[in-house]
Structure formats: C-alpha cells, structure tokens
Amino acid sequence: MSDFDNGKKWITANLTGLLAFIAGLILLGVTYRIILNIVSFSLGVILIYVGLSKLKVHIIIDFIDKMLGKLKDSLK
C-alpha cells in the first residue's frame, strides 16, 4: 500500500472517531437533565428501600422483593 492509502485510512478512522465523540457530547448535553432525573429517581427508590429495611417493615419489604422477583422472571 502506498503512503497515501495509509494516510487516507488514518484520517478516515480518526475523523469518524472525532465525529462520534462530538455527537456523543452533543447528545449528553441535550439529555443531561433526563439522565440526572433518572439517577435521582433511582437513588430515591434505593434510599426508600434501605430506610424501610432499617425500620424492619417486613410487610412492605417482602412485597417489594416479590415484585422484583416477578420482574426478573418475566425478563428471562
């Protein structure tokens, strides 16, 4: 292969990588609020579960565990 072909492949690969990186940053910039909301919601649910387990509210904890088990079984 000539140096021109090698240079063309290098430029194409790097240009594709750079464009993908920039597109990813743009998408993250547009959707960062949604991502933060999902993270906040998940942390809230986890904290509620931990709080209920520390308070030893077994009725609600057992119900949540059963629902999670059914969800896992349905996803298999």
Would you give an account of this structure?
The protein is mainly α and 76 residues long. The protein contains 2 helices and no strands.
Q: Give the helix tally.
A: 2
Shape: elongated
Mean pLDDT: 88
Structural class: mainly alpha
Helix content: over 70%
- Helices and strands, in N-to-C order? HH
Proportion of residues in extended strands: under 5%
Largest sheet: none
How many beta-strand segments? 0
Model regions low in confidence, pLDDT < 50 over at least 5 residues: none
Tell me the span between the first and last alpha carbons.
50 Å
Specify Rg, calculated over alpha carbons: 24 Å
Keywords:
92% helix, mainly alpha, 0% strand, 2 helices, 76 residues
Quick summary of this structure?
This protein has about 80 residues and is mainly α. It has helices at about 5-55, 60-75. The protein is built from two helices and no strands.
Topology, element by element:
Layout: H1 3-54, H2 58-75
